[in-house]
């Protein structure tokens, strides 16, 4: 396909110039169907990568407002990791800068802002159980869940019946499936 170059992955002991072990995870802008303004990933107080690099965006990505950046999430081909910290955050009561960061997170959650991540040039897709017997999948996943004044959960928040008011999705679980293609002449 135009614009897509295949990537060969291999185990760490077999990596070379044509076969890599690290699987890149990129973060992109956050958007919402309830708000007009998209935000760059770094607008919110999320874990960030120290290098702040990303792939070169093509004209279409720039026109559509994508802002692809490297992430702190590190994956290796054929290396199952149970869990790992990307970073740790702590907020001090009474600190005005921390209060501002928390208010931004609450604002993003209440307007159902969605993360958009990219792994191996493919968008991360999130699937969840909605109402009984219905499964929904979408590109991107919410920052968290918010219970509106009506008291009735909406969107992805219907999956959590224990929801009280506000829930921040701070744990990410990625399941990667790689497809192998062979082309013969």
TrEMBL record:
Lineage of source species: Eukaryota, Metazoa, Ecdysozoa, Arthropoda, Crustacea
Record keywords, A-Z: Membrane, Signal, Transmembrane, Transmembrane helix
Main subcellular location: membrane
Subcellular location: Membrane
Family membership: Belongs to the nonaspanin (TM9SF) (TC 9.A.2) family.
Membrane topology listed for this record: Multi-pass membrane protein
InterPro entries with a match to the protein in the record: EMP70
Species in which this protein is naturally found: Daphnia magna
Record-level GO BP terms: protein localization to membrane
Top-level taxon: Eukaryota
Protein's UniProt keywords contain Membrane: yes
UniProt name for this protein: Transmembrane 9 superfamily member
